[in-house]
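Anyone up for a design puzzle?
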């Protein structure tokens, strides 16, 4: 069993430009030292019709990673997406 916390917050500016923040935290109830969390910040920019560009920066933390992996991992991504 785990204790979980999730949050998503977004704010729309001007013509559908969206800034968003998401976070997830999971902690094992039987071993509180076993936890994972991930946070990201993104910027969504409208293109045409339902298409939008997204820039995202992610922080991924695992305090008991598999051998050979770091506790903290970061990732930057860019993409073109379609909203239905």
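Challenge accepted. My sequence:
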């Amino acid at each position: 069993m785990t204790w979980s916390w999730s949050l998503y917050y977004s704010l729309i500016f001007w013509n559908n430009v969206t800034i968003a923040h998401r976070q997830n935290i999971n902690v094992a109830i039987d071993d509180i030292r076993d936890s994972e969390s991930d946070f990201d910040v993104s910027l969504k920019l409208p293109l045409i019709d339902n298409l939008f560009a997204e820039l995202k920066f992610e922080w991924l933390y695992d305090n008991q990673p598999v051998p050979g992996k770091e506790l903290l991992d970061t990732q930057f991504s860019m993409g073109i997406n379609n909203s239905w």
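A detail worth pointing out: The mean pLDDT is 93.
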